[in-house]
Amino acid sequence: MAQQQRAIRTRRMILEAAAATFDELGYDGASTTEILSRSGLTRGALYHHFPSKEAIAAALVAAQDEALVIPTHTVKLQGVIDLTAEYAFRLQTDSVLRAGVRLTVEQTSFSQPKIAPYQGAANVIGSLLRGAQERGELLPGVRPQEVTEFIVGAFTGIQLLSQVYDNRRDLLHRVSAMWRFLLPGIAVPGLVPHLDTDIERRCAVNARARQDAEAAPGATPEATPEPAAARPAGTGASEPVAAASRRREPVKAD
């Protein structure tokens, strides 16, 4: 078990060093020698995990799937919002994820197919939206597949603009704005006011919970409260939302 943990740590050290190298020099300007220098590891340790620079880059691209933390909210639309919130927050704080995204969107000599991260995100978001449709959260005529493609494309463009304009410091604000504009066009009217699009606040709460958990091992992190719409009937604000959803017949899934 200890050896396995060391291997995991070594692999992470390589990916973090590679992420910093690719971020500064780009894929074409980076070398395994530079990655080794930044990691402080031996060449044997690097090649034990990755046979080439391209293999390291492929691992960084694949690591994007790890950032797709699937929420467990009863209200599926809130789950999609929180999924994008967590991904945006990690883009601000996780160098490995940032490197994977850069390798995916940039045109370089890195030749492996780059569609997988988009497909992975689309699969998760599409599943949540189909659940939202089954629960009557979506307006009649809204197609989960079309909304999925829009969200993936819009988020990709928003994070690129945020990177160019402000080094992603304003990314959470931009994603919040995306949802404020999008929700009235896809969600039943009774649900929209109860969906929490204050992504900056939600991410701050989650970050504090993670810090508390790290400071006190064994403690249970404080979960971000679900919006009123997700609470059981009889707790106040959720009742009109649940009623609004029940009044609409769910649209058949695509």
UniProtKB/TrEMBL annotation:
Transmembrane segments: none annotated. This is AcrR family transcriptional regulator. Residues 31-50 bind DNA. Gene3D superfamilies: Tetracycline Repressor, domain 2. It comes from Allostreptomyces psammosilenae. It comes from the Bacteria. GO terms for molecular function: DNA-binding transcription factor activity; transcription cis-regulatory region binding. Keywords: DNA-binding, Transcription, Transcription regulation. Residues 8-68 form the HTH tetR-type domain. Residues 209-254 are annotated as: Disordered. It holds the Pfam family TetR_N. NCBIfam families: ScbR_bind_reg. Residues 214-237 have a biased composition (Low complexity).
